[in-house]
Design a protein that fits this description.
Elements lengths: L1 H5 L6 H12 L2 H13 L4 H4 L3 H6 L2 H10 L4 H14 L6 H13 L3 H12 L5 H15 L5 H12 L3 H13 L6 H13 L3 H13 L6 H13 L3 H13 L6 H13 L3 H9 L10 H13 L3 H13 L6 H13 L3 H12 L7 H13 L3 H13 L6 H13 L3 H13 L6 H13 L3 H13 L6 H13 L3 H13 L6 H13 L3 H13 L6 H13 L3 H13 L6 H13 L3 H13 L6 H13 L3 H13 L6 H14 L2 H13 L6 H13 L3 H13 L6 H13 L3 H13 L6 H13 L3 H13 L5 H13 L3 H13 L6 H14 L2 H13 L6 H13 L3 H13 L6 H17 L5
Length: 900
């Protein structure tokens, strides 16, 4: 009755009678009744709500029920899960094991595997679990050991390879053998944790047990032997596999080939690939790619290309990794064309190197000057599904900046932003540096401000680029403003920062500040390098302080720095500029005696010193001596000598030098040819000038406007205006536009001939073409003054000013001289004052003209005042100045009354 009161909803009286039976039943009867309920159609939920059942039910009862339902493993699983899920029943390990065996026997592997995963979460000892499995196996008398295999496989899948191996050994100790597939999984698991010796030991046990290894077992063993670098035994295992009648697979040989390649035995690997056909196998993608990786590792890139070609011809598509490896290897070896061709070859298969390799290749192509190929690769990336990143854009932007294509670089920066890629400071650094190098400082500063506004912090490199740009432009105020801004932000200046500022100060002749800044380097713990010293040495030498320059040379040597030609050149030039050319040559001899290598820059400095003093023979002697010591002459050296020879009008020496240049493989450039033609034309030696013109043209060096103008000037000087006009027409036919200097030659001829009417007409034409300048006006002024038409000359001066063309000292002094020559000192002084009021500084010639005018007009005190004024302004009086003053003094003495 009690039981009925606890379950008022039960109306099945047969079940009530069975409840009373439970109260008096034995354990076996309880299990039998449970089994009947499990197999029956009654509700388990209703039956197990009975307190007697729930209190009596123990794990060993469940085990027995499971054993008795082995024939229906799905029913057993439902019962097992019902108790666990609805009754929170704690099943025993044995129940799990019985059910797993039952499910496996019925080929229900997935639920069996799920139960095993749950069982392992209990953290059971592998040996204890095996004992439970073994007891259950024997108790259930199942016909398969697959449950053990499933246990081993679950251990391996859960990265518990050692536990899986332990189960294998326990099975074998009990006379049970795992499946070959299971053993293959254990072997591969052991390889994964690099337990190669255990692999070999298990393989021996497999063979000794009488099991026949399959291709997967052999493959695992060969891989282990390759990892142990035991290639001799690996070959033996391969032979054992081949003789066993086992189905062969190219995968096994690929493993062996990979092992050989990994150990740089790539030629053996290629040999094994070549033997695959004899075994009825064919190399696959894995074979070829493995060989390519191996060949790249030993830097046999040409053979790698051959293997890649063979692979493609065999109908295989190379992997991205293989292509990337080979392309990158070719790039590193400088075989850019091969790498580029390979990229184009695999393009049709839809294969592309990795983004990293693309970036590296684009970078190398840019550095190698192959910009079109680099841009082509960039455009290809999109077609290959590769999206350029910040590195790609940074490389290309840097390339454009270094080539001076700043507009294109800015365009790519815009593309980068459009693609949603946030610019780093690298592209900004390139752009700022590029703009600074081209003197576009306003644009560089705008980019600098834009960079800061976008949240990027400029580093010392970017600041130094700007500082360098301002220093080159002579804006030291802005350069130092940036320097102080940088240091104020806690950014330490670099050696290059200090060197740039010191160089700027030296060029501005602010040596005291340069020396002070050089001293500040120590305070910042920045060490000066060779360039820093070279800049400072050059600054002192330009100032005429060669002594300090040589002291700095000694100082840098003491600090372990190595002087070079950039160090010695300013020292040699400094000595030469002070008239100590012989000492400069002696210094060079000493350096060469001490095995210092001097280049053409040092020789050119010495030659310039000799030629400047007119010591051409000694210059040529120095050349012979230096050439005898192995020093080569460059175009600059020859140019200096030719300039020196031109001053002496030595035609034969020029021809000899030109022959030596050609023998050395050097050719004069446009500038040198034009200089030689101009010098000969001015000297009236037009035959030589036209001879040089012919040589110039025959060597493919095209004359420019300056070259034509030099010959036209020479022809005009000797009155051959018709030939000059023919040259001018030829010039136009060659798409060269005459400039002010060209027309100035004709204008000069007309004024010297006194044909001022035609001269004015030509000048009017120049006015219409906006080709007039100070020189053309000066030619007209000189022409009118020469004819004594001083009023017209003055009108030209006024017209010049009205048209916004600034007169120079020559414009004024030409008219002043004519006034003085006429004795009209008042007008001369009036024009002089007008010149000063316009900010035009008179030179020595202008002062001499007015001093002469004062002297001949008897204004000697005014003449001496002018002499004192010119000296105050740093204009040095010359012999003409003093001759005029002496002449004026004598004139005054002759007109003074004599004493009675």
């Amino acid at each position: 009755m009690k039981l009925t009161r606890h379950c008022p909803h039960l109306k099945n009286h047969n079940f009530l009678r069975k409840q009373r039976t439970f109260c008096a039943s034995t354990d076996s009867q309880f299990v039998a009744s449970l089994t009947e309920f499990v197999r029956g159609n009654q509700s388990w939920r209703v039956a197990f709500n009975n307190s007697f059942i729930s209190q009596t039910l123990k794990p060993h009862h469940v085990e027995k029920v499971l054993v008795q339902t082995l024939d229906d493993s799905r029913l057993a699983l439902r019962f097992f899960n019902f108790l666990g899920l609805h009754k929170n029943f704690n099943h025993s390990t044995t129940s799990f094991c019985i059910l797993i065996h039952a499910l496996v026997q019925s080929s229900h592997y997935w639920p069996a595997s799920s139960l095993l995963q749950t069982l392992l979460l209990r953290g059971l000892n592998p040996e204890g679990l095996f004992e439970s499995f073994l007891d259950s196996y024997r108790r259930c008398n199942v016909s398969t050991t697959t449950g053990f295999d499933l246990l081993i496989q679950t251990y391996v899948q859960n990265r518990r390879e050692a536990d899986g191996l332990l189960i294998v050994k326990l099975m074998m100790d009990c006379g049970l053998l795992p499946q070959i597939r299971t053993l293959s999984g254990v072997l591969n698991g052991l390889i994964r944790i690099r337990q190669f010796h255990k692999v070999l030991h298990l393989f021996d046990e497999i063979v000794n047990s009488g099991l026949r290894p399959d291709v997967y077992v052999y493959t695992a063993v060969i891989q282990a032997l390759c990892e142990l670098k035991d290639f001799t035994r690996a070959r033996e295992v391969i032979q054992q596999m081949e003789s066993s009648g086992c189905d062969l697979s190219v995968v096994t040989y690929n493993v062996f080939i990979r092992g050989l390649c990994k150990n740089q035995r790539v030629w053996e690997a290629i040999e094994n690939k070549n033997l695959l056909g004899n075994k009825g196998l064919r190399a696959d993608v894995g074979t070829y790619c493995t060989l390519i990786f191996g060949l790249c590792k030993v830097e046999e890139f040409e053979v790698g290309e051959e293997i890649m070609n063979e692979m493609i011809e065999s109908g295989f598509v190379p992997s991205e990794a293989a292509v990337s490896s080979l392309v990158d290897g070719l790039r590193k070896k400088g075989k850019i064309e091969n790498a580029f061709d390979l990229v184009n070859k695999v393009k049709k298969f839809g294969v592309a190197p990795s983004l990293f390799v693309y970036n590296a290749l684009i970078n190398y192509l840019c550095k190698d000057g192959k910009f079109d190929e680099a841009e082509s690769l960039f455009h290809d990336m999109g077609h290959k599904g590769l999206f350029p990143n910040d590195v790609t854009y940074s490389v290309l932007i840097d390339s454009f900046c270094k080539r001076g294509k700043l507009d294109v670089a800015l365009l790519f920066l815009g593309k980068m932003t459009e693609a949603g890629i946030k610019a780093t400071f690298y592209p900004y650094s390139s752009l700022i540096s590029g703009h600074c190098k081209l003197g576009k400082l306003s644009a560089a500063k705008s980019l600098f401000d834009e960079m800061i506004a976008s949240g990027l912090k400029p580093n010392v490199v970017i600041y130094t680029s700007l500082i360098s740009g301002y220093c080159k432009e002579g804006d030291l105020h802005m350069a130092f403003q940036l320097y102080h801004e940088m240091t104020g932000k806690g950014i330490s200046p670099s050696t290059y920062t200090f060197t740039t500022l010191i160089s700027g100060l030296c060029r501005a002749n602010r040596m005291a500040e340069a020396i002070k800044l050089f001293g500040e380097m120590t305070e910042w713990n920045v060490v000066p390098n060779e360039v820093t010293y070279n800049v400072l040495i050059e600054g002192h030498c330009m100032e005429g302080n060669s002594v300090r320059g040589f002291e700095l040379l000694d100082e840098m040597v003491e600090k372990g720095l190595v002087p070079d030609s950039y160090t010695y050149r300013p020292l040699i030039s400094g000595l030469c500029s002070m008239g100590r050319v012989s000492e400069a040559r002696e210094f060079m001899n000493d350096l060469q005696g001490e095995q210092y290598k001097l280049n053409e820059m040092c020789l050119s400095a010495l030659l310039h010193g000799y030629c400047k003093e007119g010591r051409l023979d000694e210059a040529l002697d120095a050349c012979r001596e230096m050439l005898g010591r192995g020093m080569a002459m460059d175009l600059v050296c020859y140019s200096i000598l030719i300039y020196g020879i031109l001053r002496q009008q030595d035609r034969r020496s020029i021809i000899d030098l030109l022959k030596k240049m050609h023998d050395q493989g050097l050719k004069p450039d446009n500038v040198l040819y034009t200089t030689m033609i101009d010098a000969n034309a001015k000297a009236g030696n037009l035959k030589m000038a036209f001879g040089l013109w012919d040589i110039m043209v025959s060597e493919g060096c095209l004359p420019n406007v300056v070259t034509y103008t030099a010959l036209i000037n020479g022809l005009c000087k000797i009155g051959l205006v018709d030939k000059a006009e023919l040259l001018c027409r030829e010039m136009l036919a060659n798409n060269l536009v005459p400039n002010q200097n060209t027309y100035g030659c004709f204008l000069d001829y007309l004024t010297r001939e006194g044909n001022m009417e035609k001269a004015e007409q030509l000048h009017d034409v120049l006015l219409e073409g906006f080709l007039t300048n100070t020189v053309t006006y000066n030619i007209l002024i000189r022409g009118f003054c020469k004819l004594g038409r001083i009023h017209e000359a003055a009108e030209v001066l006024d017209n010049m000013i009205d048209r916004g063309i600034s007169p120079d000292c020559i414009s004024y002094s030409t008219i002043i001289y004519e006034y003085c020559r006429r004795g009209d000192l008042q007008e001369a002084i009036k024009l002089w004052e007008s010149m000063l009021s316009r900010g035009v500084n008179p030179d020595t010639v202008a002062y001499n003209f007015l001093i002469y005018g004062c002297c001949v007009s008897g204004e000697l005190s005014k003449a001496f005042e002018l002499r004192d004024d010119m000296m105050r302004k740093g204009v040095k009086p010359n012999r003409v100045t003093y001759n005029s003053l002496i002449h004026g003094t004598c004139l005054m003495s002759s007109v003074l009354p004599t004493a009675d």
